[in-house]
Amino acid sequence: MDLTRRDFLIKGSAVLLIAGLAGPLGLWEWNQVQRGRASVNRPILVVVQMSGGNDGLNTVIPYANGMYYDSRPNLAIGQNEVLRINSALGLHPSLNGLKQLYDRGKLAIVNGVGYPNPNRSHFRSMEIWQTAVPDKNADTGWLGRYLDSTQSGTGNLVAGLTVGTPAKIFLSKQIDAPVIESVANFRLKVRGARDEQRRRLEAFRQMYGTSDIPALQVVTEKGMHALQASELIETHASEPKPGVEYPASSKFADHLELIAELIGSGLATSVYFTQIGGFDDHAREKADHARLLKEFDQGISAFYADLENRGLADRAVVLMYSEFGRRLKENASGGTDHGTAGPVFVLGEKIKGGVYGEMPSLSDLDENGNLKYQLDFRSLYSTVLEDWMLAPAQEIVGGNFERLPLI
User: Fold this and answer.
1) Dihedral sign, CA of 123, 127, 128, 129?
2) Which residues contact residue 4 at a Cβ distance below 8 angstroms, ignoring those fewer than 6 apart?
3) What is the pLDDT of residues 192-237, one digit of tens each?
4) pLDDT band at residue 2, thresholds of 50, 70 and 90?
5) pLDDT at 387 over 60
């Protein structure tokens, strides 16, 4: 082969090539992949993390509770601005799209979600939500365990997919789940026509596949997996469906649009993960939070409209959460500090819309002035695993948890 390592721009290492992939996968399995095609009726779960600790009280607003206004003289959303969903609660005025979906019965709002002994570190709390293991460090994510339980031995190179920033949620013992920013970026170092791609794949195999060093053999497997998965995703990526306009200049919306395109292509991916950041509102929250919620709302609304336009809204459920909420009282900087429990949104054609769970008391707080959680987040995971994904929830989340009548 008239190729050197320089052609790959990785010079003796496949680290860049395999970033975001974890877990052993033999190359023989590639021959058993049916080109990544999904079953027509396969359920799909899209998990969206609102990173930074979203202020749940200014998202799902207890507008009928005077303590909310007493505790937030500057930050509280006025009763005349709230998008009311019942006599006690309403949505932030930036969430007009979600309000419309709620009115159509497609959106469930679950109040007071958290876990015992909450951690107010961003990194640790995100890890807890991504692994579903609150009391110790875990080496697998809850969706990684889902893949281990349901996809082992299938040879599916794209069983799970992160679009955007890597996270621990897909770490598993057996299954690789790619991480991509865009189809163009995921092509990595394999450019050109398909014949050229195959030539480079074979060159990669020859350069790294003949070593007796176990570490290099792992590099070969991982590198080949990444290259083959990138070709598979590129093949399945479709043009945007006419009639749906996503917000401009929003990376979050771009990620959701790509997910919709891949779902529409029939790619055999059953679980997706993406996130939108910026919710750490310690100062100047009112304007910043309104702007970010609007971006979130417009992205999610466009994504659901896209699925409807493709005739696929009944195939997907979207689970949206933040790693923790904020404190009841505003701080001196016009913001709120790290809290605990918060609301979770669940969206889909097969979702029974409405309000679930009890709103945490604003008068009975913990010793730090935080809301007390009312529902363990693993109940939501168990619900979507058992009732939507038809997977063994107890095995995946590590226990028996109450399931909600959402599906």
Assistant:
1) positive
2) none
3) 455 665 666 666 566 555 556 555 555 555 555 655 555 656 655 5
4) very low
5) yes
pLDDT tens, residue by residue, 24-58: 333 323 333 344 555 557 899 999 999 999 999 99
Q: Do 92 and 58 form a contact (C-beta atoms < 8 A)?
A: yes
This prediction has a pTM of 0.83
Mapping DSSP onto H, E and C, the string for the chain reads: CCCCHHHHCCCCCCCCCCCCCCCCCCHHHHHHCCCCECCCCCCEEEEEEECCCCCHHHCEECCCCHHHHHHCCCCCCCCCCCEECCCCCEECCCCHHHHHHHHCCCEEEEEEEECCCCCCCHHHHHHHHHHCCCCCCCCCCHHHHHHHHHHCCCCCCCCEEEECCCCHHHCCCCCCCCEECCHHHHCCCCCCCHHHHHHHHHHHHHHHCCCCCHHHHHHHHHHHHHHHHHHHHHHHCCCCCCCCCCCCCCHHHHHHHHHHHHHHHCECCCEEEEEECCCCCCCCHHHHHHHHHHHHHHHHHHHHHHHHHCCCHHHEEEEEECCCCECCCCCCCCCCCECCCEEEEEEECCCCCEEECCCCCCCCCCCCCCCCCCEEHHHHHHHHHHHHCCCCHHHHHCCCCCCCCCC
Mean of the per-residue pLDDT values of the chain: 84
CA angle 126, 127, 133 (to 5 degrees): 120
pLDDT recorded at residue 265: 87
Second CATH level (architecture) for the domain 22-188+247-397: 3-Layer(aba) Sandwich (3.40)
Question: What is the domain partition of the chain in residue ranges?
Answer: 22-188+247-397
